[in-house]
């Protein structure tokens, strides 16, 4: 199923390159936006929060980032009315395989999957 807009949030350029390349090859997104910090991503989402056509349907989110981590981002994201209306889903994409991180991620109903980096095409098959 193709998504109109996918947002990648990760502070690592190499991970962003791999994830972007994998999503492009799998052709699951018409548009991919990359933000290097959770703060930058929230600022961006704030500018499009009323636009269902532009707001991402899918967000790939890292956990460990400077200034604001992935969980703090989720705490803010779930306040967006468009997210409350279930227009957007989050896939955690992290280098962490810590069970505490996995359990914590699934405390958010918006989180649909937890994956360990790097993203591979097979990981996208059941989206």
Structural overview:
With 127 residues, this protein is of the alpha/beta class. It is 35% helix and 24% strand. It is built from five helices and five strands; from the N terminus they run E-H-E-H-E-H-H-E-H-E. It has helices at 13-26, 38-48, 70-77, 81-84, 99-105; strands at residues 3-9, 29-35, 58-61, 89-94, 111-116. A five-stranded parallel beta sheet has the order 2-1-3-4-5. The chain is globular. Residues 5-127 form the Response regulatory domain. The modification 4-aspartylphosphate is found at residue 62. Keywords: Phosphoprotein. This is Response regulator. It holds the Pfam family Response_reg.
Key descriptive features of the protein:
phosphoprotein, globular, Response regulator, TCS_response_regulator, alpha/beta, five-stranded parallel sheet, 127 residues
Compute the CA-based radius of gyration. 13 Å
Low-confidence stretches: none
In the sheet with the most strands, the strands line up as 2-1-3-4-5
Largest sheet: 5 strands, parallel
The number of helical runs is 5
By secondary-structure content and strand pairing, the structural class works out as: alpha/beta
Oligomer: single chain
Order of helices and strands: EHEHEHHEHE
Judging from the principal axes of the Cα atoms, what is the shape? Answer: globular
What level of helicity do the residues show?
A: 25-40%
């Amino acid at each position: 199923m193709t998504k109109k807009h996918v947002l990648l949030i990760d502070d690592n350029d190499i991970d962003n390159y791999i994830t972007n390349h994998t999503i492009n090859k799998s052709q699951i997104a018409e548009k991919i936006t990359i933000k290097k910090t959770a703060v930058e991503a929230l600022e961006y989402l704030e500018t499009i929060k009323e636009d269902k056509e532009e707001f991402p349907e899918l967000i790939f989110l890292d956990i460990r980032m400077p200034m604001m981590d992935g969980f703090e981002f989720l705490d803010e994201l779930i306040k967006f009315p468009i997210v409350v209306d279930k227009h957007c889903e989050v896939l955690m994409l992290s280098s962490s395989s810590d069970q505490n991180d996995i359990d914590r991620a699934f405390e958010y109903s918006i989180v649909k999957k937890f994956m360990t980096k790097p993203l591979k095409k097979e990981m996208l098959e059941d989206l």
